[in-house]
Structures are given as C-alpha cells and as structure tokens.
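Good morning C.,

I know you're traveling, so I'll keep this short. The sequence:
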Amino acid sequence: MRAGTPGAALVAAVLIGLWWAPGSARGAGLDCPAVGPGGVPPLAIEDTQIGRLTSGNAADLAAEVGGLVARAKAATPSASDDLIGDMLIGAYCPIVARTSATPAQRWRLMRQFDRAVYRALGAAALPQGAEILADVPLPPAVYDRLRRQAETAGQPPAAFMATILSRAAGP
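The tokens, ready to paste straight into the viewer:
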C-alpha cells in the first residue's frame, strides 16, 4: 500500500481510531469506517466467511482472505485494489468490534487482517511466473532442522524450503 492512496488513508484512520477514538467507540476498541453512502462502498459479495476470520490463525487467515479478494475482484472488476481493500476492511471491522476480544486483541486482529488483505491484493497483481511469498508457521525445532539442512546444501533457508515445496507440488 502506498502512502497517499485512499487505502492508506483508511487504514491509518482505523489504526488511529483504535487508539484515539472517544467515548463508546474507544471502549469497543475500534473506530470502524462507515460503509454505504458517504463511506466505503459495501462488498458486492454476500459472504458469512468474513465473520469466521477472527480466529487469529494467520495461515488460515491468509488463505481465506486470498479467496475473498478473488471473489471481490470478480464481483467488482472496475474497483481498484485500494477500494477492494477498503471494502474488505469495512466489512471486517464491525465484526471484530462485536467480538469479546480485548481492545489489544482487536487491534491485533485488524492489523493481521490488513496485512493479509494487502498481501493477497499484491499477489493477485503479480505477473504470471512471479514468485509468491508463503507464510507457513513452523515450530522452532522444525525451522532449525531445515536451516541446518539448508546450510549443508549450501543454500539460504528460504531457497531450500522453496525447493522442497516445489518438489512436493509436482509439475
């Protein structure tokens, strides 16, 4: 996301609202963007899937958000990536605000969702054949074993793991 874009402004407003929002909005921990006339356009897709994205599992979130981004792009093909991001954040924020999470947990959920949305939007814009980053949670012991194997093979850990995943995916 570039500074000065509508998406950057919306994310900044949500994040500032998390800290400075007065009254009941501050008590809820979030100051969500308005959706509808005068605010962010509503999502053109009906989906209860977005409500399940508050589990906090980053790997599952990234996969789910990738699907939501693809569906939102298909439903509103003329919308810019920033507008799609704004629409997804506008749909997700009130759901997070209604959870029983603490304000700090809500803040974390919003930041996690924002990162997943803009990573998915960026990946969707990549040219055919471009490399895509994958976030895969690994226990420290597994990462240490892979790092040692990579050193033995004379490769950086990321290149070593990419080779393993490419072989596993097949042709």
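Safe travels,
E.
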